[in-house]
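Entry 0007
Protein: NAD(P)-binding protein
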Amino acid sequence: MSFRALTYATNGAPSAVVRLTQHAGLAAPSAGTANVKWLLSPVNPADVNVIQGVYPVKAKTKLGEEWVGGNEGVAQITHISASDASGLKEGDWVIPAVPQLGTWRGRANLPVDALVKVPESLGLLRAAGATVNPPTALLMLESFLPKDTERWVLQTTANSGVGEAVVQIAKRMGVKSVNFVRDPSKPFGDGKTVEQRLKDLGADEVLPYSALSDSATKKRLKGLGARLMLNALSGPDATNIAKLLGPQSNMVSYGAMSMQPLSLPTGLFIFNDLVSRGFWMHKWYERSERAEREALLSRIAELRLEEPAGRVVKVRQDTEVVKEIFEGGKTKTFLEFDDVD
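Output (structure tokens):
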């Protein structure tokens, strides 16, 4: 059965360089591979950066002479070699165990060792986004949060995919969270605000960045003695939050959504013994063995975090579909590919 894909021949603005292409059906899978149908694939900021050519990782998957977009997704095995000994079978739901498989397409032939089975009970939205945001949140909390009696984490961009996962996982770990967003009163959906959404997920406090200019708020937050800050923003607001950390704290940067540099006063290192470091999920996958990746993704499935909010775009033969995907606002987008009749 023929299928569609979102591909590009050169780097640039996604709305200008990405196009909808059609491809012939897949041959029978050879030994060690499986044919899959992609059920749902998210569009992440990093995917856009890869297309723009400004991300440290480059696309790795081609269809013909063009690159296929997409790093995450959930697929269903449609055919698998009879001699395969991986334990996977037709009908299984699988997610990528390695980066840059090119998930923005209807169907694919993939090595079985690049796939990890997930239960259907996880649901399409959770499964489609299981390989980047939740593992990032889990590993940062487990790796860098000091083992204090009462633990607090401060985080920027709390309403992002990683931010929401941090809130939920921290709550289950008995860790309290202070969560900064641009506007807590901004409508989220279902009649809720961003603050209500995060509080429902387990947030202890939700504050606007403007609260960092209030001396009473800063004094109160400084008194918490928080020893972990998760930064996906950078810029002046991140600097001001770092000043609220207690002694011997970790500041972990995994993004820079403000597109501004991170500047930290030298005194935080000398007098507060601050450790500032980075975290990149892609690098963890590169360094880990398959068994480690499988164990991590199994843990993510078991957590059964709240479904991420977003919209599903059905990718059909429509000249406006690329514009709809990349110019459709800031709501997180998931792609569902229809087969070609």
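Curator remark: The CA atoms of residues 218 and 334 lie 38 Å apart. The chain has two domains: 3-129+308-337, 133-282.
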